[in-house]
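User: Before I run my own analysis I want an independent prediction to cross-check against. Here's the chain; please return only the structure tokens and, at the end, one sentence I can use as a sanity check.
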Amino acid sequence: METGTGKTYTYVKTMYELSLVYYGTALWYTMITKRYLFDMEVEKMSYEPGIQSNKELEFAVFCIENIAKRLQVNAEQVYAALTEKSDILHSYIVPEYDILHTQSRDYIVDDILQVMRERGVTV
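Assistant: Structure tokens:
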């Protein structure tokens, strides 16, 4: 995708509109628009634990959005539960990315919800 042209805007706007239709939320849109800045930050922070690649970031957003859809809550509430109320995002989802991302959407959501129940995390 070229940057600096109307093509980027059109692509992102179209993806945003599709996300609202299919997922009813725009959290991922905010995350994706910050992706280029995040890429630079990942390179600077690569020595710190946490999200180390765009694939892990996209997977984290995928998990948050699908849990929110299953629970019929706002994605920001799920994000807060996975990061502020607990450390499930950085202690489970990201470290287990290699295994989890090969599973089905339902399996991933069920698995994370089970971890949340075990740790007493509510949304």
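Sanity check: The CA atoms of residues 18 and 36 lie 21 Å apart.
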